[in-house]
Amino acid sequence: MTATIMQALDTTIANVALPYMQGSLSATQDQVNWVLTSYIVAAAIMTAPVGWLSGRFGRKKVFIICAAGFTVASMLCGLAQSITEMVLYRLLQGVFGAALVPLSQSVMMDIYPAEKRGQAMAIWGMGVMLGPIMGPTLGGWLTDQYSWRWVFFVNLPFGIATVLGLMAFMEESETRATVRFDWLGFATLSIGIGALQLMLDRGESIGWFEAQEIWIEAIIAAFGLYLFIAHSLTAERPFIPMQIFRDRNFAIGVLFMFVVGIILLATMALITPYLQNLMGYPVLSAGFLLGTRGVGTLVAMMVVGRLLAFIDARILIFLGLVAQTVSIYELVWMTPETSAFTIVWTSVVQGVGLGLVFVPLNTVAFATLPAQYRTDATGVWTLIRNMGSAIGVSIVIAELTSTATLMHARLTELVTPWNLGLAAMKGTLLDPATDTGRALLDQMVTLQATIISYSNDYLLMTLIGLATFPLLLLMKGSKQSGKIDTSHAIAD
């Protein structure tokens, strides 16, 4: 649980510190968001080989190496002096952190008898939720009291305790001559995903397809993903068996999870700079406000397991989607004058929506999947969710930047000598005939353009959420869904 909480904590703890990192590392807004996406992409790609590595070298060895590597990478992040170093060290964090959750889950399943696994995994799942809840609040407090670097240094005591505990108490699993790992499939998927993410991150700053670099990255991404699909369809033992997508519920569930991944982190990436830069909240206050979403998720996950016993999982998913969509749509109308109460209730409702979607969606998606494919399917599930998060952050930040520039240009067109409103400002601080007046007017135009761009981003995510509702009609329900083992759902 300590290893899992440490990994989950780092998914959200850096959010409130991003504006401070941006200034300290001399990075632009789209560059500093690489701090989020690099970690997610690396963790997504490296989740797949975990089972093969633990079977080949022993679970204890892999667990200890990953926990130690994650801790060292965290320290390096705290010592980073440039955005390049920070992104590199966050990649390392993702590489080592990818194994922490699946390995801890498998250990928990092994050390408890079958009749106690549900209870153990439920408690463990609630512990996992401490990460998203504590992340923004703890990150805000550390940044306010010390420095953004302590957001990463805080992992040191947890990492040391985890490594020493694993060395002292964990028993080594038996190694076995496992089936040869499909390195070709893994390599082509990694190259395709990496090139796609790089294209999305770099596109806005260099003019998208007007730049040769974007064309190169797009071609590499398309070629890598094509080779991966072609190889997976023809290989005897592919990296990801395509048979898992023959199950309709799982295939539809994967699409759902991709959208949930977008909402999960993209909203956090947007609301954090809004609270601090536009609304002027101190970093600690912003952390407390953002932490309320985790509280809503925790409450929903505490009750959703019992609700599944007598309510169709699709109904719970529908209610969760409604809660998410309504809360995000409310943010479309957010301004710097929006009250803290509005931010809190929208965050709590969104958290409840996420909780109502996660567990039932996992239950339905895996309910009819053959048992021999569940391990591979879990890896795909995590990969898709993480990719949704990474791609979602890249898209909303790129849209935010481009829309702000466009809106600034359109609003500036109205700042002319023939504007009667501006003519009335003659002799005041906003007199456009003075340098001070022009500077103040530019600040006002920039603020309004930024507010409009945030509203457009939230409207885009609202529309994405609405587009998932028809998918519910394609899923098969089950009156016995509550009887299905949901331990993997709670853990996820």
Automatic annotation (TrEMBL):
PROSITE patterns: MFS. The keyword Cell membrane applies. One of its GO terms (cellular component) is plasma membrane. Its main location: membrane. It is found in: Cell membrane. InterPro entries: EmrB-like, MFS, MFS_dom, MFS_trans_sf. One of its GO terms (molecular function) is transmembrane transporter activity. Residues 1-480 form the Major facilitator superfamily (MFS) profile domain. The chain crosses the membrane at residues 34-55, 62-81, 87-109, 121-142, 148-169, 181-200, 212-229, 250-271, 283-303, 315-334, 340-369, 390-409, 458-475. SUPFAM superfamilies: MFS general substrate transporter (SSF103473). The keyword Transit peptide does not apply. Pfam families: MFS_1 (PF07690). Keywords: Cell membrane, Membrane, Transmembrane, Transmembrane helix, Transport. It is a multi-pass membrane protein. Belongs to the major facilitator superfamily. EmrB family. This is DHA2 family efflux MFS transporter permease subunit.
